[in-house]
Design brief:
Blueprint lengths: L8 E5 L13 H4 L5 H6 L8 H11 L2 E10 L3 H10 L7 E4 L7 H12 L5 E6 L2 H9 L4 E3 L7 H9 L4
Parallel strand pairs: 1-2, 1-4, 2-3, 4-5
Helix pairs in contact: 5-6
Length: 164
């Protein structure tokens, strides 16, 4: 690509409850203490969410797709394999550091701003309302992924425990 060739716009997608249905593994978060190893260990069995996958494929026609997940880095291999298994577009995967326990609205907004340096983000798609609010307030065009089953334990964990 030459310096005069325009770079494609970016479409940034969350994974859990945006592309991947985590409903079958919510029970790991309902117990105390939460079973994070079980929760993330079950992620490869997530069924895809048809609306999210269709949107990612649609956006890939005119955008470069990037994935921004709150999953910890130790889940990278499983995550990349899952994306490929369900035919999602190839793209860089941004993950949370293994020891990063800050709220998702903080970690994801920081990563989204890094992703956007020198590139235009056409759309950011996420299921977490607080993440979406923070991204909107920072000037990003946001689509709230509201097509997954409600996951109150996951939402509480995203904010209170900075785990996903």
């Amino acid at each position: 690509m030459s310096d005069t060739t325009p770079r494609r716009l970016l479409a940034v997608f969350d994974i859990d409850n945006t592309l991947a249905d985590t409903d079958h593994r919510q029970h790991y978060l309902e117990r105390r203490p939460r079973d994070w190893d079980g929760f993330f260990g079950a992620a490869p069995a997530d069924p895809p969410l048809a609306r999210g996958v269709a949107l990612a494929l649609e956006r890939a026609a005119d955008c470069e797709v990037v994935y921004l997940t709150g999953r910890p880095e130790r889940c990278r291999d499983d995550t990349v394999e899952w994306l490929a298994r369900y035919g999602l577009p190839e793209g860089r995967v941004w993950m949370r550091g293994n020891q990063d326990r800050r709220p998702a609205r903080t970690t994801k907004l920081e990563a989204l701003q890094r992703i956007a340096r020198g590139r235009e983000v056409q759309v950011f798609v996420d299921d977490d309302e607080l993440v979406c609010q923070a991204a909107r307030a920072a000037g990003f065009r946001v689509v709230l992924a509201n097509w997954a089953a409600d996951a109150p334990e996951l939402k509480a964990a995203q904010e209170g425990e900075g785990r996903t």
